[in-house]
Design brief:
The protein has about 50 residues and is mainly α. The protein has 1 helix and no strands. It has one domain. The protein is about 95% helix and about 0% strand. The longest helix has about 50 residues. It is rod-shaped and about 55 Å long. Keywords: Membrane, Transmembrane, Transmembrane helix.
């Protein structure tokens, strides 16, 4: 039992770390897309005002 429990601990930690990295990359890409959209809207508004 001890031999089975010790290898299962790191294997459980690896997917969670992968999910955290995936979540971070997803958030960063989402933030970048939102930032680009806001910048484009600002440029459109400035062009419209001018």
């Amino acid at each position: 039992m001890r031999v089975r429990v010790s290898p299962s601990a790191p294997s459980l930690n690896k997917p969670s770390l992968g999910w955290v990295l995936f979540y971070l990359t997803f958030l960063s890409s989402l933030h970048c897309s939102l930032f680009v959209k806001t910048k484009k809207s600002e440029l459109d508004e400035s062009a419209f005002l001018s």
